[in-house]
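User: My collaborator sent over this chain with a note saying "see what the structure looks like." That's all I know about it. Can you take a look?
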Amino acid sequence: MNLEKELLSYWDKQGVDLIYKYKHQIHWYRSHREGRVNIKLFNDLTQTMFKEITDIASVDGYVEDGYAVSVKELLERLGHQRQRADELEKENDILKHNIRVELDSSRNMFSRMCKEKQRADEAEKRADAAEGKWEELKALLDEEISYNATSLRALFAQQWLVEMQNLERGEE
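Assistant: Without extra context I'll predict from the sequence alone. Here is the result:
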């Protein structure tokens, strides 16, 4: 696109006002009054340049008059295309930035969610462990209480026997 612009600028400075394309060659269009002379300006071997100009070799019954294009208009179009391309590039950059921000935000949210899940899993494990310890403590307390109850019964029974013996001796 830059080479096209450079060529068009050069031709404009040299006084070439109209051009046409024939078999991928750019020609200077000169009207009948100026004396039609076939002046070839450029041969596009790549066949990729000046696509906005119709190649009259592909048109049945071509006449250069109907397909000549103003060099100044082409320069303006290229300028507008460049300007539009710059605008689109800026919009694209803004969209890329917004996508990066959203992606970072989503990544951070996912990371926080993973950490919360990990903390919840750890809390659940601690709760399960505490419940297991509670059950163990309860069983130990039940065992201790039943042992103490048995011990107290035995103690009370022993005291009762002693008191009974004391009473029997006191009666004797």
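A starting point for your reply to your collaborator: Residues 60 and 120 are 78 Å apart (CA to CA).
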